[in-house]
Design brief:
Length: about 725
Amino acid sequence: MPQQKDIVRIAIQMPGAYPQLIQLDQKKPLTAVIKEVCDKWNLPGPDNYALQYADGIQTYITESNRLDIKNGSILRLTKAPGRCAEDLYKGIQSSDSGVRCDSLKLLADVSTDITFAQEFISRDGHSLLVKIVEDAHEAPLIMTHTLTAFMELMDHGIVSWENLSSVFIKKIASFVNAKVLDTSIQQVSLAILESMVLSSSSLFNEVKQEITLERLISHLQVTNQQLQTKAMALLMAMLLAGGEADRQELFEFLEKRNLRQYIHKNIIHSSSSVGDEMAHYLYVLQTVRLNHLEARMRTPLDSYNQEQREMLHGLRQAAFETESESNLSNERRRSLCAKEFKKLGFSNNSNPGQDLSRCPPGLLALDTMAYFASRYPDAYSRFVLENSSREDKHECPFARSSIQLTLILCEILRIGELPSETGSDYHPIFFAQDRLLEELFCICIQLLNKTWKEMRATQEDFDKVMQVVREQITRTLSSKPTSLELFKNKVNALNYSEILKLRQTERLHQEETLAPPVLELKERLKPELLELIRQQRLNRLCHGTLFRKISSRRRQDKLWYCRLSPNHKVLHYGDVEEETETPSIEALQEKIPVADIKNVVTGKDCPHMKENKGKQTKEVLDLAFSITYDVEEYSLNFIASSRTDFCLWTDGLNVLLGKEMSSESMRSELEILLSMEIKLRLLDLENVPIPDTAPPIPKPPSNFNFCYDFSQAEQ
């Protein structure tokens, strides 16, 4: 007798017959199960049949994946993959173009299944597709189906891309280079070339020789967003696959063709929204382009380098009108230089190069200061002279502030980091400006001086001021400004008092000195507010979230959706298409009972992170989580699109398991809710009449001598 845990209750369909409800014994060979099903329907030749899922992704059932079958699954009796492969192999060689077209269309659909792909490739079917492409005699629709089927077969990694002939590569490149051709053919051809480029350096060189970059850029200038995205994907693949010289050559070509300006005007500025895939490629382009600054960022100042010394002394000479130094003695000259470098805000005024020895930001800090001094000389002089005329403890040191600000900008823009496979956090402002880092620096160094005055800061407050400035910059950039002018207006509007409100620093500081009755009230309120957060987390899980599958070749077209059932008893999930918004539970074929979930793990403890140990970035590790179920033998692996989604899902799953929520998002929300609730409870409204009309505006004071004019330099 089979054990109960080995039995799965399923339904099996076949066109023209009543479904069979069976209890599938997972210990019984699959061939025996298929024979029993065929016998019930009086079908001869059970070897010619196989089982596959009837809904969703219609994968063939094999001995290796049969344990994935869940109770309530609906399967279909269909042609065995070998028989299907044989029929399609013959169909695509038919003399009837209609039969060829139908066969290739079906082939493109079923080639997503690896079991079928193995059967078809074992018959050398992929070589037949290569020949069809090389001959190029077929109609556009047939050619589209051929290329799509070929791409799906190659995606399984059964056949190496390096086995392809030069004739085939040239033919695919000719489809991309053609000025008049069916866009469907060009889309698939671009995807094929992208896979080639990412697979090996030799194929990258071949593709680079065959592709006309002018034509590739022209594909970005069409209205077809899918064609735009595929063209951008190939460009990014070529940037990532090539060496430093290749990247520099490609960037120079793109700059000459004003690609950055075109993207800003026609893809970012004119579109109401940028698709996830295009957002990823824009993020990659931004990251790779900014990384050309990495070398300067990691190089300290060389005191013996004449050019660097001249740049350093140029800062001093641009700020102060000095007498001719040639007439001064060496001692007098050194004394004058030291005094002026001190006014500039260097810590080591006798040897200012020491301040620039820290890497990062290294020479990049010198570059940004020199750019500010030459590009905006009036603002530079005003900054230096205004602060050098203040008391020592109140002056804002230009050089020290500039070095730290450059480091902050490098960290915010992630200069020196490799592009993440899931990253999509691009800055539209990058595509609106040739020298983003330098121009941002020029705006932010003046912002820093303004914030310093608003905070009435002293030298001891330096780190605190820099923290506020960092937050001003990150909050403004998160609003995705599309121009420098917009960024400048927004970041200057976000003054110190606004930051105080947003951060609620006063609330956090006061909690350390709360009176005992208030602490008691806080503890009494916590359970109620935690329950409110729990319900919000469960509601978010019921709504569901779209997740992205990660592959080794950076292809980003595989999506899946996961959501919790309204009764909080089952997790439903399944693959979806790009344009899907919120699929119904019925559309998600896979499910996991909550009762079967054993644990939630995050980061490097996740199975999919252990499999790729050392290959994932810190960003991906911070967004990864998994649930283990069925005695921890199986796992469902996630990579959240943002830290917010990560916190919502890990909190929600812990609630389902009866565990405590532990995310930073939960703690922040709890503190905000507690603060609001305590303030409301402590309002003394007893016997306080609430007027029906607003109180009258008081008369203005007799003078305004109490106001401080920040526009005037302090004396």
